[in-house]
């Protein structure tokens, strides 16, 4: 069974109160689980928060407030065009790419942390944000897999490029929990034609089939995974995996990229399980949309009626 262990003494409040929990698998330990467990994360989550956890998560969950969680459902009609939003500037150093890794929850490509010139700026960002890693979320079938949805529609997969703010923080680890610490760009993936640039990564996936395996990757510039149209939505949100820190400026490209069905299949052939464990296919590693909670989603583009219907 999945159980929550409360680490702090924080009272259970609907929102606004920091609390710290850890998720773990197995039987309850007995004495520690008295009436206090009524104030579990799950109980707190019987609220506008919705389905806020994933059964494959491990580690600590720190939710400072819970008022700007991610992902969200983007409603085109409710997004606000901001003519002051400049284009996002993207410049990555391909040589700083290090390896691809199966984390046990998703597939992640990691970059050298000291690669100072490699990152994004402009758009809604006040500072330059440096690339740390990118990863994917995907579904067991094409009709689901993305974390963000648009007008209730999910895509087959979603790419997240995770950047941190070296102007404000000395390291990625410090930036994760800090105000304006992270900026994540998101790209939707839909089935279509083969994506040549993605294939370099797809080719090594069989080598990281199991949890906690990794493979060295040659130079790789992830800007080749961005759509040709750079229109985006932006809003203030959180990480979508523990610690769910509410420190993320999200930038979500409007236009999806196309990938071949065979490329999606390669992701679905990865495993949540480690070598020697019972095999569990790595699919549906996405979090459900979270309540918007009075946040505004801004767009860098003026939506037309035709685009609304598309
Ligand atoms: Zn992600």
UniProtKB/TrEMBL annotation:
Its cofactor is Zn(2+). Residues 39-301 form the Alpha-carbonic anhydrase domain. It holds the Pfam family Carb_anhydrase. InterPro entries: CA_dom (IPR001148), CA_dom_sf (IPR036398), Carbonic_anhydrase_a-class (IPR023561), Carbonic_anhydrase_a-class_CS (IPR018338). Its EC number is 4.2.1.1. It is an enzyme of class 4 (lyase). GO terms for molecular function: carbonate dehydratase activity; zinc ion binding. It comes from the Eukaryota. Belongs to the alpha-carbonic anhydrase family. This is Carbonic anhydrase. It comes from Chinchilla lanigera (Long-tailed chinchilla).
């Amino acid at each position: 069974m999945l159980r929550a262990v409360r680490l702090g003494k924080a009272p259970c409040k609907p929102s606004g109160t920091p609390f710290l929990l850890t998720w773990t698998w197995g039987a309850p330990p007995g004495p520690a689980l008295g009436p206090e467990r009524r104030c579990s994360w799950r109980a707190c989550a019987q609220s506008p928060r919705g389905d806020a956890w994933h059964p494959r998560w491990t580690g600590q969950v720190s939710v400072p407030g819970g008022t700007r969680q991610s992902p969200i459902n983007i409603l085109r009609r409710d997004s606000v065009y901001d003519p002051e939003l400049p284009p996002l500037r993207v410049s990555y150093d391909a040589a700083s790419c290090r390896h691809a890794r199966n984390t046990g929850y998703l597939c992640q490509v990691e970059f050298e942390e000291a690669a100072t010139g490699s990152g994004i700026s402009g758009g809604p960002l006040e500072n330059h944000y440096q690339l740390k890693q990118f990863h994917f979320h995907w579904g067991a079938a094409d009709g689901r897999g993305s974390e963000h949805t648009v007008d209730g529609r999910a895509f087959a997969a979603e790419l997240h490029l995770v950047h941190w703010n070296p102007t404000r923080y000395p390291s990625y680890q410090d930036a994760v929990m800090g105000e304006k610490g992270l900026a994540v760009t998101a790209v939707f993936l839909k089935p279509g034609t083969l994506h040549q640039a993605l294939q370099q990564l797809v080719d090594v996936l069989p080598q990281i089939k199991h949890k906690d395996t990794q493979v060295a990757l040659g130079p790789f510039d992830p800007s080749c995974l961005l759509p040709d149209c750079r229109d985006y939505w932006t809003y203030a949100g959180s990480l979508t995996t523990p610690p769910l820190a509410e420190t993320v400026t999200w930038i979500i490209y409007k236009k999806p990229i196309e990938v071949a069905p065979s490329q999606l299949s390669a992701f679905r052939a990865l495993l949540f399980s480690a070598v020697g464990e019972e095999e569990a296919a790595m699919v549906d590693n996405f979090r459900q949309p979270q309540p918007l909670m009075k946040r505004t989603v801004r767009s860098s583009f003026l939506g037309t009626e035709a685009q609304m219907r598309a």
